[in-house]
Amino acid sequence: MNRSTSTALVVDDDEAIRQMLIAVLTKAGYVVTTARDGMEAVAAFSTQRPDIVLMDIRMPNMTGLQALAEIRRIDRAATVILMTAYAEVGTAVQAIKDGAFDYIIKPFDIEEVMLLIGRSLQMRTMRDDIAALQRELSASYRMDRILTNSPKMLSLLQMVAKVARSNATVLVTGESGTGKEMIASAIHYNSTRSNGPFVKINCAAVPEGLLESEFFGHEKGAFSGAVSRRSGRFEQADGGTLFLDEIGDISASLQVKLLRVLSEREFERVGGDKLIPADVRIVVATNRNLEEMVRQNLFRQDLYFRLNVVTLRTVPLRERPEDVRLLSSHFLQRFASENHIDVDGFDQNAVECLMRYSWPGNVRELSNAVERAVVMSTGGLVFAEDLPENIRCGLEEGSDLTVTTEPDDRDKALRDLISDYEARVIAEALTRNGGNRVKTARQLGISRRSLLYKLQEYELT
Ligand SMILES: Nc1ncnc2c1ncn2[C@@H]1O[C@H](COP(=O)(O)OP(=O)(O)OP(=O)(O)O)[C@@H](O)[C@H]1O
């Protein structure tokens, strides 16, 4: 903060102190206004919003403490320094608990006052910077960062917006790489907890024996290796959202403990006996079928019910071909700029490959494929040859579209083999889309007219 433009409000019923502070602060470059009691102070604060308030505690009409409460009601981030006689230090300490920045004891040393004011303004600048950073961060998780042209995804995002407003526990299900974590962060950053922390833990990535301490923290000496007290993710997420990814992977005993926190809203650190309140909104995700796990007694039914207050299902990429085009262009631009490669777009064959492939790894796989293609390209257009081989051929692992040459195929010309393959791909896509030619053409990345032509050519009508 630029000190020359900082504003200060001096509040004291003692005229001499007011004059003295006006003189010193003005000399130091502050713009100073004054008030004679708490009531005037609150009125001045609400119209002028000074950067700092220097206020006596004992004043007529409204005391400094009452005024502090009123000022904090107007702006919780107000910076207030209280002035007090030695006998009132106990009250001043209480005032700090109530949100005052600090206090000074009268009679005070003017240098000490200036130092304190400087420090408080520094803190204020830091706090503003952090808030701006948090806003930026939350903006980067805003829903408009989730790119989609798919009606299914748009209705999912509408649900996300509704759910975000509540405090309900949310279960996000869906295949790997479909954006479950993105949905969880969108819930957090669009909720009333968005200024609190968004803490995540991948339950499958932490060894089973350590997961309980990762969740709840531990006391010093709770187990060998617990050399000091450590807070867990529940504590770190206090006032915010805790995202438990791969929840289907937690042990039976941890399921019991999680159920307890969800119902009682408090927990103990491992090796501790103090109950710690859990002011945390829980979002969990899994790509496993929890219902089936419940049937097989692998997941507690009561926990499943607790987690399943609202379920959001992400949409696999193969069910939203419109997003393949949108996301591949987005990733192309992103990776081109990150790698300083001058790329204009995809060549038509590359687009066809991208549209034809069924993306078992979903958006993550698409992002990796485009990154590779951009890196492999020599600039200009990205060609099919730049894509990973399986995508170039429209194959995913285990695909029944594998091209095998039958004994009588061996004599066929390459052109005929390619035609046979193309006919199979088109027939498959047509079946997948229930015979809808518009959808099939869009998915294959070819025009409707060329689809009709190929249908005739291959007698697929
Ligand atoms: N609609 C989208 N728009 C932009 N980027 C997306 C979209 N969906 C997913 N992504 C990106 O794809 C990647 C995978 O998404 P995310 O990690 O959220 O998936 P996930 O379902 O949680 O995966 P996993 O189950 O493997 O943990 C991330 O880099 C994410 O930013």
Automatic annotation (TrEMBL):
The main place the protein resides is cytoplasm
Compartments annotated for it: namely: Cytoplasm
Q: Which GO terms describe its biological process?
A: phosphorelay signal transduction system; regulation of DNA-templated transcription
Q: Where is the Response regulatory domain?
A: 7-121
| Alphabetized UniProt keyword annotations | Activator, ATP-binding, Cytoplasm, DNA-binding, Nucleotide-binding, Phosphoprotein, Transcription, Transcription regulation, Two-component regulatory system
Classification via PROSITE patterns? RESPONSE_REGULATORY (PS50110), SIGMA54_INTERACT_1 (PS00675), SIGMA54_INTERACT_2 (PS00676), SIGMA54_INTERACT_3 (PS00688), SIGMA54_INTERACT_4 (PS50045)
Residue ranges occupied by any Sigma-54 factor interaction domain in the UniProt entry:
146-375
The UniProt entry, under InterPro entries, shows:
AAA+_ATPase, AAA_lid_NorR, CheY-like_superfamily, Homeodomain-like_sf, HTH_Fis, P-loop_NTPase, Sig_transdc_resp-reg_receiver, Sigma_54_int
One cellular-component annotation, GO? cytoplasm
Q: Does the keyword ATP-binding apply?
A: yes
Give residues where 4-aspartylphosphate occurs. D56
- Which top-level group of life is the source organism from? Bacteria
An example molecular function term from Gene Ontology annotations: sequence-specific DNA binding
Q: What does this protein do?
A: Member of the two-component regulatory system DctB/DctD involved in the transport of C4-dicarboxylates. When activated by DctB acts in conjunction with sigma-54 to activate the transcription of dctA.
PANTHER family referenced in this protein's UniProt entry, alphabetically: PTS-DEPENDENT DIHYDROXYACETONE KINASE OPERON REGULATORY PROTEIN-RELATED, TRANSCRIPTIONAL REGULATORY PROTEIN
Annotated protein name in UniProt? C4-dicarboxylate transport transcriptional regulatory protein DctD
Q: Which source organism?
A: Aliirhizobium cellulosilyticum
User: Upper lineage ranks?
Assistant: Bacteria, Pseudomonadati, Pseudomonadota, Alphaproteobacteria, Hyphomicrobiales
